[in-house]
Amino acid sequence: MHSIHFAILPPPAILKNEVECVRIADYRGEEAVTIKVSPTGAPGMVFHYNKGHAALEHIATHSGRSFCPPPLFLSGPVIEPSVMTYKKTAFTTVHVIFKPSALKTLFGINASQLAPGWIGPQECGALDLTSQLMEARSGQEQMALLTTFLVALLKQEKPRDMLVEESLRLIHAHIGSLHVKDLLNTFHLSERQFERRFTQAVGLTPQAYLRVKRFNAAIHLIKTRRFARLTDVAAALNFTDQSHLIHDIKAFSGMTPTRLAQQVDDFYHEQAGYAFV
Length: 277
Hints:
Blueprint: E1 4-9, E2 19-27, E3 34-38, E4 44-49, E5 56-61, E6 66-67, E7 72-75, E8 82-86, E9 91-98, H1 102-105, E10 118-119, H2 127-135, H3 139-154, H4 162-173, H5 180-187, H6 191-202, H7 206-224, H8 230-236, H9 242-253, H10 257-267, E11 268-269, E12 273-276
Antiparallel strand pairs: 1-2, 2-9, 3-8, 3-12, 4-7, 4-9, 5-6, 5-8, 7-10, 11-12
């Protein structure tokens, strides 16, 4: 088996409102590695390298899209599983997982224009950062460089949509019971107005984001084994029925519920997403 060490780091205090966590994957083998990832609805910045070169060969999505990313890239939120294929070499990846609205609040990007997709360092003002990260002599130095870059963006004071940020807080707090109509009633907006603002900030429609987060919550319940039956998981999260839950598990993980339950301990992490080898 491939031996990949994963470490999850909390964000620096100054970035806690923009960054969820940082996931570092370190591999010291020489065989080709593929990692499957399920969506969390969050954007991210990924740096992947080995001895001054890119480590990722390509990323392929479940729907058939494929791209060869540069060593540093900014990704929008995705709602389908993907497979990351690495070159036959040892590697390290540093994945900064942002809060859902960070593309707008940090980078000033209309998130709907990036999801699903990615941009390179030149498009997000990080061209110099790539070479600095490559030349860094330690992981601590790389983290310091990334932190300095993101703090500089934060100090530029991009406009925030506080209504969207409050809607995200409500979604995360009440994922098992909240519907889009509840948010419309809370904020006294038309569905069209709310969807436009939410999509510009998050990159997904409110309906799509809620669906992804309910899938994430279902994985959490399966992981913790709070319920013995899948029907109970579906009921706890207000899925229409068990078939609805099974459909979403297949759509977002690319696996059947039975296979997912067998492997959930190997790939689940509540903040960093879902990855398994």
